[in-house]
Write a structure and sequence with these properties.
The chain is mainly α. The protein has a domain of 193 residues. 71% of the residues lie in helices and 1% in strands. It is built from 23 helices and two strands. The protein has a two-stranded antiparallel ribbon. Strand 1 and strand 2 form a beta hairpin.
Length: 460
Amino acid sequence: MKCQQDIFGQNTTLASSEAMNNWNSTLLAFLAHGADTPKFLDGTFSAEPGFALGNAVKGLFYLMLGRSELRPTAEAALGAARDSASHTPVTDREMAYIDGLADWLAGRPSGTIQRMERILADHPQDALAMKISHAIRFILGDAKGMLASIEAIRPAYDADHAGYGYLLGCHAFSLEECGEYALAEQTGRRGLEHAENDAWGLHAVAHVYDMTGNSEAGVQWLNGREAAWSHCNNFRYHVWWHKALMHLDLGQIDEVFGLYDQEIRKDKTDDFRDISNATALLSRLELEGIDVGNRWDELADLAETRTDDGSLIFADLHYILALIGGSRQDAITDIMGRMHRDAKRGGSDMDARMANPGLAAAAGLEAFGESDYRTAFLNLANARKSMQLAGGSHAQRDVFERITIDAGIRGGFLDETEEILNERTSLRAGREDRYAAVRMSLINEGRAASQRMQSQVPAE
C-alpha cells in the first residue's frame, strides 16, 4: 500500500501531496476547534474521494454534533469507508477508526474510546486519536479517563510535535475537571505558548478561575485573548459564555446581557451546545431574580423541534430548561415520554444515561418549573449522585446543581441543602463564590425564621 506520513508522523494512505496538505490542515483545525475544519476535509476528498480514514473521521465528526438527523450521513460515511478499505488496503490504525465509527453507530461510543486507546497504545503521537478519545470521554462524563488517557501518552510528545500545544490544552482541561487547579492553570498557559489558537486550552484556564471563585482574574485572562477563539466553530460562543458567567458572579448584569445578545445568541443557532450555553445562563439569571425578558422564546421554539432526538442526555436536559422557560407544556410532556421510552429500551450507552441520571433529573427540572420544590429537590438530589454521567464539565452541570440547591431552600430541606452546598464549595477548592455565599445566607435566614415560628407556638 502507498502511504505518506501526516503532520503527526502517522502512516496514512493518501497518494497526492494536495490531499495530504488538506488532511494535515484538517487535523490541525480539528484540534483547534477551527471553523475551517469541514473546508479542509472537503479539500481532502476533492483530491482523493476514496480516502477511507477521512470518511471514518467525517462520520465521527457528525456523531459528535449530537443530532439524530445526521445519523444517516454518519452511516453513509461508514459505508464509504468500508467500501474504500475493501478495494484499497488501509493500515491497521486507519481500520481502527473505521471500526470505532461502527461502534458508535451501534450505540457504543464507549467502544469507540477503546478503539482510540488501542491506537494510542501503538501510536501515542497520533494526536487525532488523542483528541477524539478526549472528546468522547467528555461527552460521556469520564473526567478520570480523560486524564489517564492524556498522561499515558504525554511522554511521547515534545515541543517539536505539531500537536504538542493542543495535547497540553487537553491535559489542562482534564486536570481541572479532576480538581488539580494549580497544575491545570500552569499547563494551560504553557500550552498556549505552543498553540496560540488553542481555544480548548485557553478555556481550561477559564474553568480554573470559575472553579476557584476568582471571576475577576477570569475576566482579565480572557480580555485581549479573543484571537484564540474568534477562529472557532460554535465553540467560540461557549468561551463567551464563560466570560458571561464571570460577569454574573461579579454582579455585572448589563455585561452579561450584552454578551448574551451580541455574542452567545447573536446567530440564533440550533446546535445543542449553543442552546445549552443559553439556557444555562438564562436559568442562572432567573435564579438570581433577574428578568430575562422574552429571551426564552426563541430557545423554546428550537427545543420544541428536538423532543424526539434522544442523541444525548446532556442536550435533552437543556432542551427541557428551554421548554420550561418558554412554558411549552405539551413539548415537555413529549420529551419526558420519549426519555422514558429510551430508558426502558436500554440498548445503548445513551439509553443507560437516559435511565440514570436522566429520568430523575428531568423530573426534577419539570417539577421546579411547576414550583413543586419538594418534588424537584427529591428528584434532583437523587440525580446528582450520578450527574457526571450526563457529560459536560463541572461548570456546565453547575446549573443543575444550582437548581437543586434553590429547590432545597424553597422546599424547606435546609440541612440537606447545606450539605450539598458544602460539597459544591469543597469541589471548588473550598472557595465560596457569590452564589454559595448568598444561598448560605438564605439557609441561615430560613432557620432563623423557623425558630421564630416555633418560639411563637403556645405551649399546650
